[in-house]
Design a protein that fits this description.
Layout (H helix, E strand, L loop, with lengths): L6 E6 L13 H18 L3 E5 L13 H17 L4 E5 L5 H11 L3 E4 L5 E4 L2 E4 L2 H10 L6 E6 L4 E3 L5 H11 L4 E4 L10 H10 L4 E3 L16 E4 L15 H13 L2
Parallel strand pairs: 1-2, 1-11, 2-3, 3-4, 4-7, 7-9, 9-10, 10-11
Antiparallel strand pairs: 5-6, 5-8
Helix pairs in contact: 1-2, 1-7, 2-3, 5-6
Length: about 260
């Protein structure tokens, strides 16, 4: 069974049909996703995660069929534009079932789930994990090889109660059967705390990836974990949602790969 990738770039899709800021051309969104994928592959990235970043405000539960269809079109374009990239899907805010369905359609190797176990207070309200449903659906669809990359203390959220990070991490990995644990800062582009990363790494036996706030300047922090999911820094402005900048992507990949 394939291992968890160590160097993953994020493809932030522009607003899709059925979202408030959709610009009217799905073709333009698809072309943008393909261009980002090509840039990541050329830069030396191992994998890419496609996410509907432009669809704010995010739906707290199941997204619309139009979103699923549009993301599938984008993921297939990414697959064609960058066949060497391993592919992942993240359906925001937390539609794991849709992510698995898209993965089945486009032969993706992983899905990201922001709240897999437990519950978090978010700007969408209380978002509750459904690990029991996700694992059973993965088995039903014959997707046991698709890795579940699951956040703990995910960004843009707060806990319902005071609970140690190491306990939450163990539950996600051991009771939620996550294939990898992801750690973020408090918001998109915000860095993780070194002490938090160490606590998570020491509490689980599955790979741990830094999943927000990674920059070229503090890349040495990533040595403590298995790898990284990087999005914002790859944009020329350093802000999420813009196209991937090929030069910044290359600089980040080269620095990361030099660490061994």
């Amino acid at each position: 069974m394939p291992s968890i990738p160590r160097l993953i770039g994020v493809i932030h899709l522009a607003p899709l049909p059925a979202s408030p800021r959709f610009g009217g051309s799905l073709g333009a969104v698809v072309d943008g996703a393909a261009a980002d994928a090509a840039a990541l592959e050329k830069a030396g990235f191992e994998a890419a995660i496609v996410e509907n970043y432009g669809d704010v405000p995010f739906v707290p539960g199941a997204v619309s069929p139009a979103t699923v269809a549009s993301m599938t079109a984008c993921a297939l374009a990414v697959r064609q534009a960058a066949p060497g990239l391993r592919l992942g899907i993240n359906v925001l805010r937390n539609d794991a079932a849709a992510a698995l369905g898209i993965a089945a359609a486009c032969r993706a190797e992983m899905v990201r789930i922001n709240v897999h176990a437990g519950a978090r207070v978010t700007d969408q309200g209380i978002v509750q994990g459904e690990a029991h449903r996700t694992l059973r659906l993965r088995r039903e669809l014959g997707l046991d090889a698709v890795k579940l990359l699951c956040d703990v203390a995910v960004k843009h959220s707060a806990p319902l109660g005071d609970r140690p990070l190491d306990e939450e991490s163990r539950d996600v990995a051991e009771r939620g059967l996550a294939d990898a644990v992801l750690l973020t800062g408090s918001a998109t582009g915000r860095p993780v705390r070194a002490a938090d990363l160490l606590a998570v790494v020491q509490s689980v036996s599955v790979p741990v990836l830094v999943a927000s706030g990674a920059t070229l300047e503090d890349i040495q922090l990533l040595r403590a974990g298995h790898g990284v999911i990087v999005g914002s820094w790859l944009r020329k402005s350093g802000r999420a949602g813009e196209p991937v900048d090929p030069e910044r992507a290359k600089a980040f990949a080269e620095a990361f790969l030099r660490m061994g």
